[in-house]
Amino acid sequence: MRSQPLKLLCCAAMLLPLISLVPCSVLAEGPASGEGPGGSVAAENTELDRSAYVDGSVYDNPAPELELVRIGLDYGDGALEEAWFENSAGQGFLIGVYDEDRTFRELARTGESLIRIGCPRERLWQVLLEETYESARAAKEAADVCGGSVRETDEGYQVLYGAFSTRSAAMEAAEEGPLPGRAYTQDPAGLCVTKGRGGEFLFMQTGAQPALAVFPLGDGSTWHGGELYRGGFLCRFDAFGGLTVINYVGLEDYVKGVIPYEMNYNWPYEALRAQAVCARTYVVYNQGQYEDQGFDITDDTYSQVYRGLQEANETTDRAVDSTAGQYVRYEGEICEIYYSAADGGATEDGRNVFDADRPYLTGKIDPYEGAVDFSLKTWSIQRSGEAIAARLLWDGIELGPVTGLLPKYSDTGNVIAIRFSDADRNRVWIKGRRCYTILGLNSPHFTVTEDENGGFTFNGGGLGHSCGMSQWGAYAMASVYGYDYEDIIRFYFTGAYIA
């Protein structure tokens, strides 16, 4: 799971006392149990105490109102110049708009099975610098650097340069330009629908609102961008003139388009059911996260990976159907759900990863994941002090070649903060997910040792943020230990239940 924007009442993990007198530049608060990351975990009790399960029936568990999910398929830097849609049944499309209540309103229809939505005229594309300048003089200096011009806006002064016939050409120029910028077009015209073959006009948008929707006739599935989807599609211009494509699809069909991409379709059935409940809970909790762009969530790891119908099969669909309308809840409320590929032997408190202080996101030793083998179960990565300094600089932190690292561990053995220092005794602390992402590591479950040449070796295990459910742990619980999807959910989300 994206784990964007991936956008996202917990027991705090106790930290071990800080070790201050160690004759080595790597100071570490060691893991509280077992041999730590990459080693065997001391807690090997795999028997669940079902008597401790919370009785969810004592709470009011209202059904959420979300019935139609809006997923951003092409947006931001991935926005299009034009969008193509093909009815998989060889039939046509309804053409219309989506109202504010997500109801499709038909304006016209066509029998053409392959259509294009785009601008009816050629547009001029330019590069717009990312920075907005407070003074015209500063903007003029930037314009002189790139050979552009200045325009005044309500926020300040902006710089535009170049003239391109396509968005992709403008994007390429922006990537190669002397200052950060992005593709931009002014005053986009209304949208139109044309035949996919021949280019004849089928429908021209009227009115000022630059948005148009299509819905397939027949069995309700459509090819777009090499993937097969159910539901309808809304196309709208973004603030930079790019075409955002949004898939409107029923909640359960959405979950069916997530499961085979977030968890292998041939995995144990109970693990797939646990994933279905998590995916459904995630989208309901995060609905409207990208409202400023017109959709609820994205189709990538910023939210959950969603690719539609192609990889779905009878088993994955059955896992969704058998759990339809079920959510992870805590005292009646829909939970803030997270999951990752593998926790390396221990999950982590939500507050130490996402600032999500939730009682059901409590870190714990995971005795199940280690029962199965998978890629990155354990790993070792080396970084020089210079390479680490370069990574810090990419993140806006200026430090000399790193000579010392001080990781701070939670009581489940995950790094939740890390101090970097250089030869001049400059120091910087980083916490949360950045502890491992800034180093280019696979998870927060690792130890650090200094090499003879002054570099550092990171030995760890797992893949992802380690908060919430481990997907490989769910696999092991189902395949090795015979637990069902309710057991999986209750183990990884303390005090939570399914309803």
Compose a concise summary of this entry.
The chain has 499 residues and is of the alpha+beta class.
Percentage of residues assigned to helices:
10-25%
Distance between the termini: 22 Å
Strands side by side in the biggest sheet: 4-3-12-15-16-1-17
Q: Radius of gyration from the CA trace?
A: 26 Å
Which spans have pLDDT < 50 for at least 5 consecutive residues? 2-36, 38-42
β-strand number: 28
Q: What assembly state would you assign to the polypeptide chains in this entry?
A: single chain
Major beta sheet summary: 7 strands, mixed
Report the average pLDDT across residues: 88
- Estimate the strand proportion: 25-35%
Number of helices: 11
Query: How many domains, as an integer?
Result: 3
Structural class: alpha+beta
Tertiary shape: flat
Give the helix/strand layout.
Elements (H helix, E strand, L loop, with lengths): L67 E7 L8 E5 L5 E6 L5 E7 L3 E5 L6 E5 L6 H11 L2 E4 L4 E8 L2 H10 L4 E4 L7 E4 L5 E4 L6 E6 L4 E4 L2 E4 L1 E6 L5 E8 H6 L2 H4 L6 H17 L11 E2 L15 H8 L6 E3 L2 E2 L4 E2 L9 H4 L25 E5 L1 H10 L7 E8 L5 E8 L4 E5 L2 H4 L8 E5 L5 E5 L8 E2 H9 L5 H8 L4 E2 L1
Helix pairs in contact: 5-6, 5-10, 5-11
